[in-house]
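If you are new to this repository, start here. Below is one unmodified record pulled from the training split, so you can see the exact layout before writing a loader.
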Amino acid sequence: MLEDFFTRAVIAGIGLALVTGPLGCFIVWRRMAYFGDTMAHSALLGVALSLVLQVNMTLGVFIIAAAVAGALLLLQRRQTLSTDALLGILSHSALAIGLVVAFLSGIRVDLMGFLFGDILAVSVTDIVVIYLGGLVILAVLAAMWRPLLAATVNAEVAEAEGMRPEVTRIVFMLLLASVIAIAMKIVGVLLITALLIIPAATARRLSATPEQMALISAGVGALAVAGGLFGSLRFDTPSGPSIVVAALALFLISIALPVHLWRARREA
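And here is the target side for that same chain:
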């Protein structure tokens, strides 16, 4: 019989995967993997400031991640540097400032815990936050699905049709900041990007439509969580990295499969 803490970890991880799957699809479609990494790195600054100011950590991480996203939009409009250069500056600066603030404040920070997470320590309250927050995120994503998809395919056409792609981009960044704030404690800031990208990349090879890709990505993420946690239990390995290794294994399997034949049958 499984321990209660392990059951809570599985429930929490699957709930998170159901949210990161569809969001990760847009990251893959828009080629924004480095942006996701930048947002994740900014979470450490949010943690440090939350501890110093004694505010709710999830709220603090969300505010900082949203601020970093806003800074990127403002800097992009000035067109002084390429997007990848701006992302590199914001990513490493936010991470470094977070570490310096934590050091200068004299507050002891479990750096390994925040970097790699501790899904086995989630509480019932954490599960409630994950599922309620996840439902809100998925509801907003569903409402914005068509404008987001149109802006991803062709921003100029979407703007001509009155869909305001700039607004949808801001909404998407806020959704991503919300997921990172919720997921930080579970899989850590360095592994959340992998959970966003790898299941979506796996689903892309198995899908014929964007909607199929979103659903399959959520399923792959949930399977990776379950497989990683049971593998962690079996081999006594760290839970967070084990989840990502399981996701990588599923991706490698998808590469090995002759999916073009299967996709052709699904499209027929």
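Two things worth knowing about this chain: The two ends are 45 Å apart (CA to CA). Residues 4-188 form a domain with the ABC transporter involved in vitamin B12 uptake, BtuC fold (CATH 1.10.3470.10).
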